[in-house]
Automatic annotation (TrEMBL), chains A, B:
This is Metal-dependent carboxypeptidase. Belongs to the peptidase M32 family. InterPro entries: Peptidase_M32_Taq. PANTHER family: CARBOXYPEPTIDASE 1, METAL-DEPENDENT CARBOXYPEPTIDASE. It catalyses: Release of a C-terminal amino acid with broad specificity, except for -Pro. Keywords: Carboxypeptidase, Hydrolase, Metal-binding, Metalloprotease, Protease. One of its GO terms (molecular function) is carboxypeptidase activity.
Length: 490, 490
């Protein structure tokens, strides 16, 4: 066995263990008995202790020094392991374990606080998590910027300066578009009615199938906060059901199918190597968003969906497919990020990005967070937050320590804009398939040009290779302006 | 920190990891996508590699030498860790990992072979598993008896000689009782009808609740082969549904509640120590069997169940509670162990015990197993096996490497007989509660006298302390003869 082989065998086991830890997270959010929180926190901490020990194993350093890559794939594998080794080695085992334990516990505290609209039950816990994450960030940053150090875990190579500049250039066009749309004479109707859970789930399943989701290597469950989980042969999705709003379930499902499909699309040969996962959260989100929005909320696919939903629910309050397309894409004031329309979604991210940078830097204390959130929300969205569950308590991310994660959602939208432009040129007859409820030509193009590569290329390179152009926010903004000008007859 | 504290902290993490591995097993048998078999095998192997490394960690030897127990609990903890350390150290890591991987894969192969009635698809895999288990047994036995070495994992202190003697003394009375019962003039009616899955599951849930199952620390799912899984705050049960036979679902559920209830009943202070689990498979089975049979199939509880089932299914084909009690306890020829009545159940175990001893010793080869099974079944039960799914393919145990496990089912029945005799004396008005669908006075007696102790006492000591008598098969056989003489009017 060469040093490279030894390293890969060791890494393979680490990847398998990390996949187990992820499965445990899925279990906690879908099926775990509610009384098992302490036990699960111990289990997560034990898994993290094992994983951290392996990620900092001194043999890794030796193997990395001795290993001789045979090709570009080997080279990239070494890069990724080396990066992970460097990062993990900076974080003390005690801290890594403690973060796993506390975030597992905090998840339940957050869910209860959200259900009871009681931020005071949650903020002290958030304060502890924040302290741990700041300590982790200090260790990782090694004198550099704390937020950048955290961001780097989700979007390698990105920086807050770069993202702040991106957001600065996106905001004016988004705000103008929102004004035009909200002030337009034509306003799409809302969908009204009662939509039974079982029928919604059946529809959601057929949408997942329309996007080529491989049910033999996945499954769908209900979760408070939809997410996807897992890789290779076991990539699961979750969804939620609101009986007055079937779009919530359907588009949560298509979104999560985007994530899962990415994992399912990665070259099998990369399984349980560092190449065997989506390369970044931004790259991941590009898939979930292009599935959900550019494809799933496009005129062709919603034409098919209109028929399916009319059949399933025995008629709809919207009289035709054209009106239905406008309804699906309706822009309205709203509190909730995950339910936001395409025009406003990124404005939600900008709010979180600024607040979490302030939390990490220490400029903002958790005791002032509710006030800061509400003030900022009023400024950015023109409406006052009515209750904490619609404000600072709406997202699980901070509870589970995901600081630096939110901006990858907006990056994903930008990447999706780039991919969509290239895909439209490469697959000119796509709408013909989508109109029949078949999104697989789009999935195939994305699979061929992006998904199959897994972690082989850095995120920006990956998108630029797939599209043949530099990453830019322009395609996304052009697409939004064109789409919503059409719908709103601007 | 003393050596004892260090040891306990290390062990606590090992217990948490072992609980994770068990949860992964639950996932595989209930919710895992069918295409994830290879991935799951890798994950199980990786977990086993970690667990084996910890169980054989040289520091354990040092701590065990230096640790100073303060009381009997500490002493027992040291005994149990030391026992596990000695056993684990005899098994090479490669072998332990390979068994985890192959048994995870074999489970799917077995399930397919059983579904397709195709033993030839499964026997080569069984042959590989058997080879690995024989290798493990040799390592564990250290020159002693191979089967005893395996048995010791499930029932510490038991030996095949002792069990063979027990079975020899049980068989004649069981065979005579069966003859009398099958030849009796009075024969209870079968229950006929169609019983909808949802209604069965609702009934099964209310039965679990009647036995005090703590739903906040458990849940119920469907599995091909019902089992219970987990400990402390997360002990889950599974059941199955046959729409022509509601007793299958109801009594599988009560049986698994017995197992889960044992885990739920262990002193919280023992959580994630070696005392925090049921002490042996025999002790475990004593709980599942006494819940299922002595309590669940008794006249008092079935009186309540009769009303509940009549209401749930809008009438039953049995006209009264007395007839229903006889129907529940009906003795008929049948192939399937898990569906066997109390009279014949242990005869099924004896068949498996003899065959698996022959497999482990090498007297029987897997290529001859179907023939050997069928011949033995004809001799012991007087009927010819009609298809492999009703014969050698009916149980998952050998596929997942559980050789030496089956006899603990019969031991559990014997223990349950002892416990039932003592409980009847200690809780004389139990039937009054059971008649109202409340089994908690029985559960409380078992909890107080047995369950709460977890691993604190060796299995026989535990039963003898709880009952104040030596373990003997007599109470079980007396109970069976009295019960079935009554039902069959002998």
């Amino acid at each position: 066995m060469s040093a490279f082989d030894d390293l890969l065998a060791f890494q393979r086991q680490t990847e398998a263990l990390s996949s187990v830890a992820e499965r445990l997270g899925w279990d906690q959010e879908t099926v775990m008995p509610r009384g098992a929180t302490e036990q699960r926190a111990e289990e997560m901490a034990a898994m993290e202790a094992v994983l951290h020990e392996r990620r900092t194993d001194p043999r890794l350093g030796e193997w990395l020094e001795q290993a001789e890559p045979q090709d570009a794939e080997d080279q990239r594998i070494l890069e990724l392991i080396s990066r992970d080794f460097r990062r993990a080695s900076r974080v003390p085992a005690r801290l890594a374990t403690e973060i796993a334990r506390q975030t597992s516990l905090a998840q339940g505290v957050w869910a209860d606080a959200r259900a009871n609209d009681a931020p005071d039950d949650f903020l002290p816990v958030l304060s502890d998590i924040l302290m741990l994450k700041r300590e982790e960030a200090s260790a990782l940053a090694d004198g550099g910027d704390l937020y950048d150090a955290l961001l780097d875990d989700y979007e390698p190579g990105a920086s807050q300066a770069q993202i702040a500049a991106l957001f600065d250039s996106m905001r004016p066009r988004l705000v103008t578009l929102r004004e035009d749309v909200l002030g337009a004479e034509f306003q799409p109707s809302a969908l009204s009615g009662h939509f039974a859970q079982e029928t919604q789930l059946r529809l959601a399943r057929s949408c997942a199938t329309a996007f080529g989701y491989d049910w033999a290597r996945g499954r769908m469950d209900i979760a408070v906060h939809p997410f996807s989980s897992g890789r290779w042969q076991d990539s699961r999705i979750t969804t939620r059901v609101v009986e007055t709003d079937p779009f919530n379930c359907i588009y949560s499902t298509i979104h999560e199918v985007g994530h899962s499909s990415y994992e399912q699309g990665i070259d099998d040969d990369y399984a349980f190597t560092p190449l065997g996962r989506g390369v970044s959260m931004g790259a991941h989100e590009s898939q979930s968003r292009i599935y959900e929005n550019q494809i799933g909320r496009g005129a062709a696919f919603t034409g098919w969906l209109y028929q399916r939903m009319s059949d399933a629910f025995d008629g709809l309050s919207i009289p035709d497919a054209e009106g239905f397309y406008a309804t699906v894409n309706r822009v309205t004031p709203g509190y909730i990020r995950t339910e936001a329309d395409e025009v406003q979604y990124n404005l939600h991210i900008m709010l979180r990005f600024d607040l979490e940078r302030d939390l990490i830097s220490g400029r903002l204390d958790t005791v002032d967070l509710v006030e800061a959130w509400n003030a900022r929300f009023l400024r950015d969205f023109g409406i006052a937050v009515d209750r904490p569950a619609n404000g600072v308590l709406q997202d699980v991310h901070w509870a589970v320590g995901l600081f630096g994660y939110f901006p990858t959602y907006a990056l994903g939208n930008v990447y999706a804009g780039c991919l969509n432009k290239a895909m439209a040129e490469a697959v000119p007859d796509l709408d013909r398939y989508l109109a029949q409820g078949d999104a697989t030509p789009a999935v195939e193009w994305l699979r061929e040009n992006m998904q199959r590569h897994g972690g082989l290329y850095p995120p920006r390179d990956l998108i630029e290779d797939a599209t043949g152009s530099d990453v830019s926010e322009a395609p996304l903004l052009d697409y939004l302006e064109e789409k919503f000008s059409g719908i709103y007859r601007l």
